[in-house]
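User: Can you recover a sequence for this backbone? Please restate the input before giving your answer.

Assistant: Of course. Working from this structure:
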């Protein structure tokens, strides 16, 4: 049975999409699943750095699409989890090097080898977004709990629904309880109400994320990291586990502001 294809997307850059892709892939592998993560952000290629695999790359996704190597040759095996693989993006090409048909074929071929395929989508809603979401069985939308990010995420939700693409679930990233209490950040209930999609996880702000990403050691590997625990919980929910959400504060002022504009 083919694996489940999950695309990580966002309405804007800088919300933690690639961090989510890396940590979710690691977390699923920690549960014993065979996972292939695909870096679909052609021209940038950051997922390999976050996974600590940049020095192992020989071929990339464009090489495979152009027939210069086999899929198994392009896949980079993780040094910590032998069932975790990365298909890296090309740095010297742009997003037009991959067509929607190309990505659809690559993702489904990877799904024949894996239980989960995690696609790190380019930000925004242009060509790269479209080829990344087309093969997906599920789209995980990552947003920060602030008005502009939620507005951009809402555009993605609307586009997914209008085009009849895969269903979406929500990951709220960089959540800070103290800012919610001071009415300086949207609370999670407001974000869920505004986007009208199911919540899959809330990842707290964690100063360990930056250093972990720079070292190629995703925080999901750190038992003391609050964000790491949150990513592992997200993987558990995708795995069918009933994991409760932490109780969090609420406020409504931002909801009124958002709807009044």
């Amino acid at each position: 049975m083919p694996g489940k294809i999950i695309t990580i997307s966002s309405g804007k850059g800088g919300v933690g999409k690639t961090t989510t892709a890396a940590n979710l892939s690691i977390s699923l592998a920690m549960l014993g699943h065979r996972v292939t993560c695909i870096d679909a952000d052609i021209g940038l290629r950051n997922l390999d750095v976050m996974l600590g695999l940049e020095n192992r790359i020989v071929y990339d996704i464009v090489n495979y699409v152009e027939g210069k190597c086999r899929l198994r040759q392009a896949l980079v095996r993780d040094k910590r989890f032998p069932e975790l693989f990365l298909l890296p993006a090309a740095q010297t090409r742009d997003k037009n090097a991959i067509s929607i048909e190309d990505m659809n074929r690559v993702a489904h071929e990877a799904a024949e080898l894996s239980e989960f395929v995690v696609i790190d989508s380019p930000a925004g809603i242009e060509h790269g977004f479209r080829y990344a979401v087309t093969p997906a069985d599920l789209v995980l939308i990552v947003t920060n709990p602030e008005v502009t990010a939620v507005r951009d995420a809402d555009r993605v939700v609307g586009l997914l629904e209008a085009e009849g693409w895969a269903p979406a679930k929500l990951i709220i990233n960089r959540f800070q309880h103290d800012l919610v209490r001071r009415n300086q950040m949207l609370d999670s209930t407001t974000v869920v109400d505004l986007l009208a999609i199911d919540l899959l996880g809330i990842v707290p702000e964690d100063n360990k994320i930056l250093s972990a990403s720079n070292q190629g050691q995703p925080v999901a590997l750190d038992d003391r990291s609050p964000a790491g625990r949150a990513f592992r919980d997200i993987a558990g929910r995708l795995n069918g586990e009933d994991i409760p959400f932490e109780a969090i504060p609420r406020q409504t002022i931002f909801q009124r502001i958002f709807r009044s504009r």
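That completes the design. The domain at 4-258 is CATH 3.40.50.300 (Rossmann fold).
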